[in-house]
Amino acid sequence: IIRNEAKNIPGLMRNISTIVDEVIVVDTGSTDTSLKLLEQFPKVTAYTFEWCDDFSKARNFAEEQ
């Protein structure tokens, strides 16, 4: 689950891309370039979830994916 994490995405993906087959990301309303950056990584499947001030709903949505 992310929101406005563009500064962290490249480093994270460099660190994990060799040890995972797939990365599920749920964006909760980023206004930076997070979603655009994620498009560069073929192992990432990104979903959007409209933030409703309820982390557990966002977490449950992410787990369903």
Structure description:
The protein is an alpha+beta fold and 65 residues long. It contains three helices and two strands; from the N terminus they run H-E-H-E-H. The chain has helices spanning 9-16, 34-38, 55-64, and strands at 23-27, 44-48. It has a two-stranded parallel ribbon with strand order 1-2.
Summarize the structure.
35% of the residues lie in helices and 15% in strands. The protein is built from 3 helices and 2 strands, in the order αβαβα. The protein has a two-stranded parallel ribbon.
SSE layout:
Blueprint: H1 9-16, E1 23-27, H2 34-38, E2 44-48, H3 55-64
**Number of beta-strand segments:** 2
In helices, the fraction of residues equals: 25-40%
Shape: globular
Mean pLDDT: 96
Uncertain segments are none
Order of helices and strands: HEHEH
Radius of gyration of CA atoms, rounded to a whole number: 12 Å
Distance between the termini: 12 Å
Total helices: the number is 3
Beta-strand percentage range: 15-25%
Could you give the order of strands across the largest sheet? 1-2
